[in-house]
Amino acid sequence: MIVLINGRIVGDEYTGCALCGDNRRTGTYLSIDGTLRCKMCGKPWIGFYQEVAGIKLYFCCGDHYKEFRKIIERIITISGKSRIKVISISINGGERTIRIESENSKEISINEPMFNLTKT
């Protein structure tokens, strides 16, 4: 599976988090309490690899991993396909468009608010 954010490949510690596309150098800020935090959600930056749909991907925090996993689960439910070839996330202001291409070239798109971080 290839993950693209605004046309840029992401998913490892150098290219960035699979959900927000930021890496430790470009996607963090130092909070007043001295904690390194994600620019997008403000959660403490952890930086870890986790397997999603059979591929190890890099995430900046647990919330971004959970949200990405939920996106993949929704796509699998909608498409009925468990093998994803490309996931492309286009971020524009407060909205994101998620386009999935499955192994059989079937495409699915979802439009949703950018900050859809859910609790589970």
SSE series? EEEEEEHEEE
Distance between the termini: 25 Å
Uncertain residue ranges: none
Q: What topology, given as strand order, has the largest sheet?
A: 2-1-7-8-9
Number of structural domains? 1
**In which range does the helix fraction lie?**
10-25%
Strand content: 35-45%
Number of DSSP helical runs: 1
SS elements, strand count: 9
Mean pLDDT: 84
Biggest beta sheet summary = 5 strands, mixed
Determine Rg (CA atoms, Å): 14 Å
Helical/strand content category? alpha+beta
Pfam families: Ta0938
Put the structure in a nutshell.
The protein has one helix and nine strands. It has one domain. Helices cover 15% and strands 39% of the residues.
Write the layout of secondary structure elements.
Blueprint: E1 2-5, E2 8-10, E3 28-30, E4 36-38, E5 48-52, E6 55-59, H1 62-79, E7 84-92, E8 95-102, E9 107-113
Parallel strand pairs: 1-7
Antiparallel strand pairs: 1-2, 3-4, 5-6, 7-8, 8-9
Pfam family, one: Ta0938
Describe what this molecule looks like in 3D:
With 120 residues, the chain is an alpha+beta fold. The chain has one domain (2-113). The protein is built from 1 helix and 9 strands. The chain has one helix at 62-79; strands at residues 2-5, 8-10, 28-30, 36-38, 48-52, 55-59, 84-92, 95-102, 107-113. The strands form 3 sheets. Strands 2-1-7-8-9 form a 5-stranded mixed β-sheet, with helices on one face. A hairpin with a 2-residue loop joins strand 5 and strand 6 (55-59).
